[in-house]
Specification:
The chain is of the alpha/beta class. 42% of the residues lie in helices and 15% in strands. It has 3 domains: 285 residues, Rossmann fold; 56 residues; 149 residues, Undecaprenyl pyrophosphate synthetase (3-Layer(aba) Sandwich). A 7-stranded parallel β-sheet has the order 3-2-1-6-7-8-11, with helices on both faces. The N and C termini lie far apart (56 Å).
Amino acid sequence: MNKFKRTALVLGAGGFIGSHMVKRLKSEGYWVRGVDLKYPEFADTEAHEFIQGDLRDVNFVSRVIQFKGYQGNFFNEVPYRLIEPFDEIYQFAADMGGAGFVFTGENDADIMHNSVSINLNVLEEQRKLNETFNGEKGWSECNRPKLQWKTKIFYSGSACMYPEHNQLDPNNPDCRESSAYPANPDSEYGWEKLFSERLYLSYHRNHGIPVRIARYHNIFGPEGTWEGGREKAPAAICRKVAYVLGDEGEIDVWGDGEQTRSFMFIDDCIIGTKKLFLSDFEERRALAQVGLGRGMRGRRSVLGNSLDSFAKWLLKFRLVSIPARKIANSSLAWSIVSRSDRVRAHRLRDRVLTGELPNHVSIIMDGNRRFAWSKSSVVGVGHSEGKEKLKEVMDWVLDLGIPYFTVYALSTENISERDEGELDVLYDLYVSGLNEISEDARIHDRKVRVQVVGRLEMLPQRVRDAISNAEDVTSDYRKKALFMTAYIYNNNLNNSVCIISTQRFI
């Protein structure tokens, strides 16, 4: 019996998203074949088998989609009766890139021809394979039972397929799935993505191939292309800034500066893609957004824009810019900003208190590592900052009088995937945080009970001791509020060990 739970074929495995999907699938116990024209640029592939070749070649695709066993038999002649379809196919392969490649107009024919050829080949060859293995054509003579499934295929679409007129207002981009029609993408790349969506859905309707489609919005992260015109906006702007010499340099920015973007980190993209793939969505519901698809900039009035432009013009003069810089960096300026922030916070608090408050707030601790990476710091710094932010949130919960507060602090996935050094940092933070809670005057004044649940036996003794202490010193507080922490919980939350008490705390 093999040790792999499923088999997966990742097309475009040498690219940014494809290479990360290979890592994810392998970590989940899949046997993975990766296929691309090129190997990953910045790291070795983690695929069990990586095949380099051209997916525009129909004969190559026909061989690629055939699973011939776990021993790397792609180049060997294997009896056809021993061939099986893959359980899952992820199609990321495309002739694509950033603004420096897509919007020049010089690559339109290649973009359309290459990407459409790949998708037609993949769908048609998989259709033939499905029909053969489901006993419809000449397979019955092999005395092999019909397969009870057909290989599900994921196709990576793009937000570029949305009409250009829906993207002209930076404050109100319309990226609803239904807004794709009437169609009017702003590039041939967008037209190809829209056509390929319809191609996959057509094969689903006519040939029963299960498909899932995601429209990606501005995915970024490590090991992504950073130069050459195919890079995405975050990598491009970072490269341009890094190359500027001195304090007076300038960089070129695509567009008029009014564009907005909502970026998604690669890990979140992969998680969302997997959830969509495993879902039971069908037909029109097979489409999903991966990324918000909205800009994050707030509205500004005409007067505000005018004042901003005037201020920037004034700052060009040294007589103004030098004292302005000194004032802006002074303690007085920061004091004014701080006071203004506190005034806004109090106003917001008053507005919240006039509305209906929730009885229970839950938090899943996430993003600490990405925060550290964004600051070019070690991961431990991110976890430490996350702890401080959690203390701030706890203060808000106490101030607002919310009776239940739950923190999901450590999952089974964290235990299995994090290295020992990072886990030790987390354990030390748990100990210090729990000890601080045990001694916090506000906890005792407001009689907040602390309760910790989960697979505590998997935690080091020092963490369990801190847990016992926090629970013991608050065990008599049963009528005010409940602060609950879940450690070592199942990450899919379907069988979560965190069970919230049904008793109402007043």
